[in-house]
Amino acid sequence: MSDVVYLTRERMRELEEEIHYLKTAARKDIADKIAEARSYGDLSENAEYDAAKEAQGLLEGKIYKLEQTLSRARVIDGSGLPNDKVYILSIVTVLNKASKTKIEYTMVSAEEADVETRKLAVSSPIGKALMGKKVGDVISVKVPAGDITLEILDIRR
To answer: Are 156 and 83 in contact (CB under 8 A)?
Structure first.
């Protein structure tokens, strides 16, 4: 699990802030819940205690996973990349040939991908098909819903 994780400076900062919150406020909340549950007496049949201990385990797992991601992270900066082809951090406008709808994607690493903000992982089927392509290129991609055909209309940073 030593693969490098490429993140934007913004995402790196978000992860650092999340880890800080989890290690401080979230850990304190769970410790308080465990202490309260202990006060109820017999731990062998104490559902609140079991739930708090399980929540603690999940929290520690999340912290560990985020720390592992950060330990492998490298900040990427797309400002030096040209706009002639699709690269990571490119903002790509495509036209879905079937539905005639335009969609704009920002090409990011899998760790930053987010459907709601149209951040597309370069490792996703559409991301892989777009990488290295130029304005005017038409690609066909097999996705779970079937095949889609996209035309690249614009590439920018």
So the answer is: yes
Per the structure, the complete domain to which residue 96 belongs is given by 78-156
pTM, two decimals, is: 0.70
Same domain, 34 and 93: no
Q: Name residues whose C-beta falls within 8 Å of residue 139's C-beta, 6 or more positions apart in sequence.
A: 129, 130, 133, 149, 150, 152
Mean pLDDT calculated for residue range 7-11: 87
Give residue for tokens 């797992």.
61
Closest CA to 78 of 45, 46, 112, 54: 112
CA distances from 37 to 24, 34, 45, 115, 155 (A): 20, 5, 11, 39, 56
Are 87 and 30 in a shared domain? no
pLDDT at position 120 over 80: yes
Same domain, 67 and 86: no
